[in-house]
Amino acid sequence: MTSGEFNFNECAVALGNAIRLTRQHKGMTQAELSERLGWDEAVIARIEAGKEKLSLHTVAQIAMTGLGVRFGEVGHLVDQYLMRS
């Protein structure tokens, strides 16, 4: 993706990858993350697959409440994934 271009699907996939990587780094399963958030595990699977449109509030909730990391940590990983595309 070059400067000025925006592809929501690429961003959603990058966000899903960042969430999955962070979750795995924390040694958590999708079931554990879904329990911490009070969500269905299938929702986590769709998010990690890049198939869910997420609000900023939801991303922050996943990062800080679910994963216990700073919002910027997930954002940094998204940035890294997008730069590889």
Describe this structure in words.
- The protein has helices spanning 8-25, 30-37, 41-48, 56-67, 71-84.
- By secondary structure, it is mostly helical.
- It is globular, with a radius of gyration of 12 Å.
Summarize the model shown.
Helices cover 71% and strands 0% of the residues. It has 5 helices and no strands.
Strand content is under 5%
The residue-averaged pLDDT reads: 92
- Total helices: the number is 5
* Class by SSE composition: mainly alpha
Shape category: globular
Major sheet size, sense and barrel closure: none
End-to-end gap: 6 Å
What proportion of the residues is helical, as a percent range? over 70%
Question: What topology does this entry show?
Answer:
Blueprint: H1 8-25, H2 30-37, H3 41-48, H4 56-67, H5 71-84
Helix pairs in contact: 1-5, 2-3, 2-4
Keywords, please?
85 residues; globular; mainly alpha
